[in-house]
Design brief:
With 188 residues, the protein is of the alpha+beta class. Helix content is 22%, strand content 26%. It is built from 4 helices and 9 strands; from the N terminus they run E-H-E-E-E-E-E-E-E-H-H-H-E. Strands 2-3-4-7-8 form a 5-stranded antiparallel sheet, with helices on both faces. A two-stranded parallel ribbon has the order 1-9. Strands 5-6 form a two-stranded antiparallel sheet. A hairpin with a 5-residue loop joins strand 7 and strand 8. The relative contact order is 0.21.
Length: 188
């Protein structure tokens, strides 16, 4: 089932997500629905807050960008309670977009090399060093679990320049090709 994507301005996107425990009911169904929602929205990652749940859950399928970023080829992940450790290394600026901020794309500087610790859908622990564009996707999605969105990483001047576009999202004055949930006060 496709779930609505919660758009910028909705309070759930600014909450720090709660830890998920093995007794969480309906997890496999939620993961299936999150992947379906992500694919229908043509995204490569989706965090639970983006579907209205303040829980530390992320789904990623980076394979669609694998031709341009080989580290993404064949990478499909379920991240439960992920933790990122930034490793020494280069910081790179690239354009990012987000299903919760439709119609926008901004340059964001992120670390190219991270260590990721997480549990899979069976709560088995994993740890891996990740680099390149895959590290960017993971950092972007994990930001959602901390109540952040990618525009929190851009300069105040740049934020000022996109202020009207952000207001249009908050006010519901946009059209999107996937199911969405606007901020509570939004007009449609």
């Amino acid at each position: 089932m496709k779930l609505p994507v919660y758009l910028y301005g909705h309070p759930v996107l600014r909450k720090q997500a709660a830890t998920v425990t093995p007794d969480r009911e309906g997890l496999s169904e939620l993961l299936k629905n999150m992947f379906e929602t992500m694919y229908a929205s043509e995204g490569v990652g989706l965090a639970a807050p983006q579907v209205g749940l303040s829980e530390r859950i992320v789904v990623i399928d980076a394979d669609p960008v694998g031709e341009n970023f080989p580290e993404c080829a064949g990478r499909k992940l379920v991240l439960i309670n992920p933790e990122i450790e930034v490793l020494d290394g280069e910081r790179v600026t690239r354009g990012e977009g987000c299903l919760s901020l439709p119609g926008l794309s901004e340059n964001v500087t992120r670390t190219e090399h991270i260590r990721l610790r997480w549990q899979d859908e069976n709560f088995q622990p994993h740890e891996e060093e990740i680099s390149g564009f895959l590290a960017r996707i993971v950092q972007h999605e994990c930001d959602h679990l901390e109540g952040k969105v990618y525009i929190d990483h851009i300069s105040p001047i740049r934020k000022q320049l996109i202020k009207r576009k952000l207001a249009n999202i908050v006010e519901g004055k946009i059209r999107v090709d996937y199911p969405v949930r606007f901020a509570p006060r939004a007009r449609r």
